[in-house]
Design brief:
seven-stranded parallel sheet; single chain; alpha/beta; globular; about 220 residues; 10 strands
Amino acid sequence: MEPAVLRDLAAARQFAAELDTTASAAVLGQAIGHLAGELAPRHLEKVYAVEHALLQDYTPDAYTIALRQLLEQAKPSIVLFPHTYQVRDFLPKLAASLGKVAMSGAISHRVDHGQLVLARQLFQGKVNVDARFAGAAPHFASLQAGAYRADQPGPEGAPYHSAAVNSSRPAFPRRHPHQAARALPRIAAVGGPGSRADDRVGGSRHPGSRQHSAD
């Protein structure tokens, strides 16, 4: 599993802990059971494997369709992505298809009165700004490389959930019967085979460092 994805998973868990909710993950592609297995020990509520032949090679349309179907079922509040060229290509399309906007390249966060506040840099790092999500979920954000440190896997694995994608008509991914009564995830981190650590946009900072814009 690429470092960029592991850092996003650590950030999702940190967000979930501070917002008193749960974190899950999703991976997209074809024959990706091994990737879902690598995610399982990462202290997550669930791991979704979204598999389809059309996801074997990346296209923005296929990723958008697959993620929309997954989001309709899982109903997360916040969806996090690594800040890569690939994500920069399809995330605006995904967000716009749901009437949403996406926060790009967040470098840090804080929780203010139960609401997530993300910080990003403008003008080549000369200005830090805060952004809050407004309106109904889901909310989308990508996290800048190096903004969060990847944590270590835990002793127990998250339930592995295989999600089927219907390419001809809208459909919900299938759900294992024993998971039907489980709480839905509130924060999800999404990755794929193309989420490479060297496929990032913009600069990075020392892992684990945090910045906040002045109030």
